[in-house]
Amino acid sequence: MAGRSIWTPANIVTMARVALVPCWLAAAELTLPSDGTGVAWGSLAVALFFIALSLTDKLDGYLARSRGEVTTFGKFLDPIADKLVVIVALCFLLEHGMVSSWVLLVVVAREFLVSGLRMVVAAEGTVVAASSLGKWKTATTMVSLSGLLLIRCLVSGPFLDFVSFVSYALLVVAVLLTAWSGVDYFLKSWKTVVGDE
Q: What CATH number should be reported for the domain holding residue 33?
């Protein structure tokens, strides 16, 4: 019975997200960006695929809560799925010269920091309350990355310029929120880390 308990609808969605990340990357690597004169339909499909992966983050959370099936396995795998989706997309965009390596550095460094802190505070039996910063960080990051992927398929013109401006502006906000949320978590964990009572 315990072995079957992880097979909830929410966990199945999360596992599907993890499995689909390399499929998304393979599809993305096979597509070419628009030459500016016409829509690159393959790149559009890749962008829509990414948007679907992003939206399923809300779906598995909703299923788990609404069905009363929040599991330890889901708590473990869901953030991993989120990080995979974001980091793989950033690596792809970095490879194609669309984002700076500094963006990837901030995102990965923050995840290492927070993951390490979570292990330390959990070992000490301390619970650090989650802030809304993390949710805003995730949402802003997903929207900005979706926009950047759409840039690859659009025709040159005012709409492309608008999407580019908004996407890069949101990416800057996402990076700032990523750094801020990491600092916020560190400050909340400080007493546990240094051993103060």
A: 1.20.120
